[in-house]
Amino acid sequence: MMAPGLALGASVTSFKSTEDALKQGMSAFNGGYYEIAIPALQYAAKEHEFLAEYYLARIYGDNSGSHTDHAKAYALFQSIADEHAEIDPEDDPRAPYVGKSLTALASYVRTGLKEIGLKPDPDRAAEYLHNASVSFDDEDAQFELAKMQLKGEGVEQDIPRARHWLARLSQKGHAGAQAFLADLLWRGMYTAKDQPRALALISVAVDNAPPTERLWIEDIYQNIYCGAGEGIRTQATGIVGEWGNRYGRKPQYRDRSGLGMLVAQPVRTCHTGELVGRIEQHGVTAKVEPPVAAKPEMRFLQGGAASAPALTEAPAAPALRDVGAGFAPE
After folding, report:
1. Angle at CA 231, nearest 5°, toward 230 and 234?
2. Model pTM score
3. Are 74 and 116 in contact (CB under 8 A)?
4. Comparing 32-36, 144-148, 184-188, 315-319, which segment has the lowest mean pLDDT?
5. Neighbours of 250 (CB within 10 A)
6. Which of 31, 59, 209, 313 could form a disulfide with 214, with the two C-beta atoms 3.0–4.6 Å apart?
7. Is the pLDDT of residue 8 over 50?
8. 170 close to 178: Cβ distance less than 8 angstroms
9. Sequence-distant (≥ 6) Cβ neighbours of residue 126 within 8 angstroms
């Protein structure tokens, strides 16, 4: 096992204390100022501060930044997994970060990492994802594991179980699972084709999507929207309002510019030249806008299935548990 300090590089910056370094590093990280965060987090990580190691790994694993170093990220995530995989997921506040570290580690192991001679190992990746999914209830791990179960990659193919994860995550507002499930419904893969519900679900996913996931989710939305006729769009309009309330999750934004929410939105068009509109409760708007979905209030039944508040003024839209046989959590 590689000691965290070996992956961090030298740092000449000094701080009053480890706690002060961690505080400054976290503040800079949250502001997106990685060049300031790195020396502070390095200082704290050399004193074995858990969060410093985790957020350094996040910085090094960020492909959108200028400090990307996947070899260092892998070493840090591996160290966290090795040292903390046995902690109590119920009582230890480090548990969510360990789950995320296992999920990140699985991504590297699944595809390999040439810089360090790491070869792809889907079986080992599936083990990491299973641990993160079951022991640490990490949603991203559950999503990735579901995709592997659909294909039988690294695990035995288990389509019902994969659909269970996708439905459960979609009910909880996971944008990636919603988009992936919408694409399956649109194409009729692993379930019966249901294009109105596919369009409704991908509409909710766009609203839920965090900035890092938005591009590929909007790609799916564009494909479905442009392929949907007016009848399908009208049917989706009758569903999307309630599903937005049931399965919405307002994404968390971290502004790196200090300029506020100046999010550039590409102008998307269909092959016919039609602008890609947004399916909303009251019809189709002219273009895709930044997400505004509110965080839902949801009750949970035994087993984790979500239950939406009952409606009294209008017939309820179909629930996600009704979308295709086998999509309801058992």
Report:
1. 85
2. 0.79
3. yes
4. 315-319
5. 15
6. 209
7. no
8. yes
9. 106, 145, 148, 153, 154, 155
Res 166 pLDDT > 70? yes
Cβ neighbours of residue 60 closer than 8 Å, sequence gap 6 or more: 67, 68, 69, 70, 72, 73, 76
3-state secondary structure the chain: CCCHHHHCCCCCCCCCCHHHHHHHHHHHHHHCCHHHHHHHHHHHHCCCCHHHHHHHHHHHCCCCCCCCCHHHHHHHHHHHHHHHCCCCCCCCCCHHHHHHHHHHHHHHHHHCEHHHCECCCHHHHHHHHHHHHHCCCCHHHHHHHHHHHHHCCCCCCCHHHHHHHHHHHHHCCCHHHHHHHHHHHHHCCCCCCCHHHHHHHHHHHHHHCCHHHHHHHHHHHHHHHHHCCHHHHHHHHHHHHHHHHHHCCCCCCCCCCCCCCCCCCCCCECCCCCECCEEECCEEECCCCCCCCCCCCCEECCCCCEECCCCCCCCCCCCHHHCCCCCCCC
Q: Which residues pair with 113 in a beta bridge?
A: 118
pLDDT band of 268, cuts 50, 70, 90 = very high
